[in-house]
Amino acid sequence: YNGAQPRIVQALDVPEDMLQMKGEEESSLADCCTTLRSTVADVDELLAMRKHNLVTSQHLHKFYEDVDNEDDWIDEQIKIISATQFGSDLPTVSSLHKHHELFGVEVNNHANIVEEV
Question: pTM of the full predicted structure?
Fold first, then answer.
């Protein structure tokens, strides 16, 4: 539509000598111009609604993507914290303790993200 808009505007700029025709041709030309202007206005309105719907749809899809990402993160964290092996030596236990501390930090960081979603 945007590519054709200059041609539509040009078509609506009917030369004066054509508008000065008398009789049936004059009313027919005026009717065509009125119909074309009305159609262009209708298309503009439809275009605005379509743009609005596309933006709304984009926001909705972004929301679903954010929810899916957070859901995946939660599933991943549940797997980590539900591990039943606690380690049998000091390095393993230290590593698990470090993971536990990082888990607390990640939960706090993701709290802000969840609030945004």
Answer: 0.57
